[in-house]
Design a protein that fits this description.
It contains 24 helices and no strands. It is mostly helical and 549 residues long.
Length: 549
């Protein structure tokens, strides 16, 4: 027996705390911002913003780019896709501005909107040694803009890596000086998470607060952002209320007292990955997947005996409801729940897409649970896998490939689904499935490794790298951070290649953003911190105050 092998005499428990979200409280909640009550004013504000964009076309590039950036960060760019692309395309054939702030913003917004631009636009800011000119550090807003642009780099763009190193160094040192509170706050937030990597829903509310202190921002645009946020929030709340009723009827709280009850957190993940209002069914399917998968995770990681877990894995592999008879009593409700919600999704896809998606969903469920089974064998035997072994399996057990497959079938329609697109969810090398999962797995392990090791789960990326390379925990963490940066660059390349339809590239990007947000301040699905609770309240339960006129 391995030194770390588990001695099993009684069932383990992780000591997870009960949910802080009462389903009855959620079901009874209302924000008062249903679309039908505000549609007229919303349309007026959208038309006013279109007019603002039109009138700004002839302004300086700095003014136009700042307006487009604000529209994006306020969360309303999805209303003006064509207008924004037209404005940016017009800039493509105009003279590129010469100051660092505007060039960097120009670069970032073009890439962000799927338009081609070379990183060579930054050559003018390099010295003879290929380094950024030292005198640029005096332009703090320009350096901050350069830092934000560097987050959209792709593999092989050395100039953007140099830009990131240069801007990070000078922004960090600037915080040691006395700065205006506004610029100091912007620098701190960007160094923590650049704009490109922020979750749009969270960024919208934060940026609304910023714009309320900025008298130069359009009041009509700000009103649109607030009203749109509140109306979409009301839609999210209605979806969450429907899910709360379903979850209450499932009664998993009583059936699985050892497990995490995390419906609201699971819905937040689905919203973060697929935020656009029209994808309501997608969010609800993904939320059901996430909350049931969380229970499944705890069965594999904490509660189940190895022989029971083998039976559960075999039952999911054969995908037959009759297999429930071979399972221990406590596993049966979870197994049935998986089948029932997959059946819902398959029936919807049959009607909407005219195809049977069950083979694709089943394949990913099998891969997912076999990954869990592999981890359980490692835990029970005390085996510490190599780093590559762990990572190959870990991107499966994070659940992102399975969730992304759900999103794939829920967002595409008959016109956009094709033989080529189906390869993106079948190929084991698919970057569409892999990169968001990799980023999620690495963020998860960076933040949760200590808690997991205390529960006896000694298999994680940090531990495996430490053992394999015989390095300190700090060195292992630095390596993981480097892998995350590499994965972001590869994700940027995937999006820039335009090989994916826009809705799918958005899913891939938002999946990575969502993992980053959920784990930057602790384990999203295990520890219900005050910061996490505040995020849930502002996201779903508390509208932004709007002055009545």
């Amino acid at each position: 027996m391995e030194p770390n092998a588990m001695q099993v005499s009684e069932r383990r428990t992780a000591g997870f705390l009960p949910t802080v979200w009462d389903p009855d409280l959620i079901i009874s909640s209302s924000t008062g911002y249903k679309y039908e009550n505000h549609a007229t004013r919303l349309e007026q504000l959208k038309q006013a913003t279109k007019a603002l964009l039109e009138s700004t076309k002839d302004a300086t590039p700095h003014v136009l780019l700042s307006l487009i950036d604000a529209i994006h960060r306020l969360g309303v760019a999805y209303h003006f896709k064509e207008e924004i692309k037209e404005a940016l395309n017009n800039l493509l054939i105009s003279t590129i501005p010469s100051d660092l702030f505007t060039v960097a913003k120009y670069f970032r917004l073009l890439r962000q909107n799927g338009l081609s631009i070379s990183s060579e636009v930054f050559n003018k800011f390099l010295d003879q040694d290929g380094k950024f000119m030292d005198n640029l550090r005096e332009d703090l807003k320009g350096v901050l803009s350069l830092y934000e642009a560097s987050s959209l780099g792709i593999p092989g763009e050395d100039i953007l890596e140099e830009a990131n190193n240069f801007s990070t160094r000078h922004l960090t040192s600037s915080l040691m000086k006395k700065l205006e509170s506004n610029i100091s706050e912007q620098i701190q937030q960007s160094l923590e998470v650049p704009v490109h990597q922020r979750l749009p829903w969270i960024e919208a509310r934060n940026f609304i607060n910023v714009c309320q202190r900025d008298k130069s921002k359009s009041l009509l645009l700000l009103e649109l952002a607030k009203l749109d946020y509140n109306v979409v929030q009301s839609l999210y709340l209605e979806e969450l209320k429907e899910l709360a009723k379903w979850w209450k009827d499932m009664n998993f709280k009583e059936k699985y007292p050892f497990s995490r009850d995390r419906l609201v957190e699971g819905y937040f993940y689905s919203m973060g990955c697929v935020p656009h209002p029209q994808f309501s069914k997608c969010r609800k399917s993904m939320a059901k997947l996430t909350v049931v998968a969380t229970v499944l995770d705890d069965i594999y990681d904490v509660y189940g005996y190895l022989d029971e877990l083998e039976k559960l894995t075999d039952a999911i592999s054969c995908w037959d409801l009759k297999a429930v008879e071979d399972l221990p009593e406590y596993m049966r409700p979870c197994y049935i729940a998986i089948h029932e919600h997959v059946k819902e999704m398959v029936e919807d896809a049959s009607e909407r897409l005219g195809m049977d998606i069950l083979p694709y969903i089943k394949q990913n469920w099998v891969i997912y649970t076999r990954g869990y089974m592999e981890e359980s064998r490692w835990i029970y035997s005390g085996y510490i896998p190599t780093f590559d072994e762990y990572l190959e399996n870990g991107v499966r057990t994070i659940g992102a490939p399975l969730a992304t497959t759900y999103a794939f079938f829920c967002t595409l329609d008959r016109d956009t689904i094709s033989k080529q697109s189906l390869e993106w969810i079948q190929s084991p090398d698919s970057e569409f499935l892999y990169l968001g999962a990799l980023i999620g797995r690495l963020y998860d392990d960076l933040l949760t490794s200590e808690d997991e090791m205390e529960r006896g789960e000694v298999v994680n990326a940090i531990k495996c790298y430490m053992v394999q390379e015989r390095v300190s925990e700090e060195e292992a963490r630095d390596h993981i951070k480097g892998l995350i940066s590499d994965a972001w660059r590869k994700l940027n390349r995937l999006i820039a290649s335009k090989s994916l339809p826009k809705c799918l590239s958005d899913i891939a990007l938002n999946t990575a953003r969502c993992w980053q947000h959920m784990y930057k301040k602790g384990d999203w699905f295990s520890v219900q911190s005050e910061a996490h609770k505040d995020t849930i309240i502002s996201s779903f339960l508390e509208p932004i105050p709007i002055e009545q006129k």
